[in-house]
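TA notes. Do not distribute before section.
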Amino acid sequence: MFEGAYVRLEPLATVHARDFYAATHGADRESIWRYLFSGPYPDFASFEAWVADKEHATDPLPWAVIDRSGKAVGALTLMRIDSPNRVIEIGGITFGTPLQRTTGSTEAIYLLARYIFDELGYRRFEWKCNDLNAPSKRAAMRLGFTYEGVFRQHMIVKGRSRDTAWFAMLDSEWPARRAAFETWLAPGNFDADGKQRASLGDLMGSGGM
């Protein structure tokens, strides 16, 4: 389990299913699941079965995002774990409506990145997404990942051809990225109304693709 100021991460389990389902199957369910490999689910029973199938997985390794109320409001996954080469990918990012565009959503990525580099000692942290998924590509840049290009016709997802945009963060880049995350997440970076004083993109020095 990884504890932050706004969220904590713990291994995804069926105990999280009810809150996770509620957070991801509201009016915006189609947009939440559009670029993911599965979902949305027609009912809670099918969703719970999907969570149960992932509960004991080791690769992909899913994490539930728990907010300060104690509810599971999202999940994200470590996958394609290449220990000999110390390379790992973050994927399956499923942020429910209550988590989207919050400080907690950024902190969730930071907590995993810190684990990957500081505890596991990995060299390369990858982020991949459908090249049509503009919000995911913008998020990768804001979070300090570097754009590396597109793998054309990389896979078929939900019956459609997918070009995959690749991003990565390296261990040599992590100290500066960690400092940017921690500066942005610090309470002093937010005014009394919760508005950020410095943007994470600016702190990261993110540029265009």
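Switch to the second chain here.
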Amino acid sequence: MPRLARASVGGICYHVINRGNARREVFLKDSDYEAFLKAIGHASIEIPMRVLGLCLMPNHFHLALWPFHDGDLSRWMHWVLNTHVRRYHQHYHGSGHIWQGRYKSFPLEQDDHLLTVLRYIERNPVRAKLAKRAEQWPST
């Protein structure tokens, strides 16, 4: 039975997260982070997306996204994740799932809630004790 399509309404901000399968690391070295950021850049050319905030951690990511049109979030995430998975398998000579499952997306109010989530995203490496200050983490 096919999965139900996600509701991805344009003009609404979303907090988007996903983590590595079995909580394994997905970003093993700097070039993995760079490739994911490159995929974000390419996807944003094909499907314009406002990326308000992001944080790539060794085994998961957080994005704050603001799609322009209905359906853009799903198409954009499909582009980014499929591009990254193909590159990952080619680079590491692997196969199978690297992500725990479908990404999760939570609509955000465009007020103090959005600011709170953006602070949460940028401080993620500090809470994980990977950096003393948020600006020291390279992928925020």
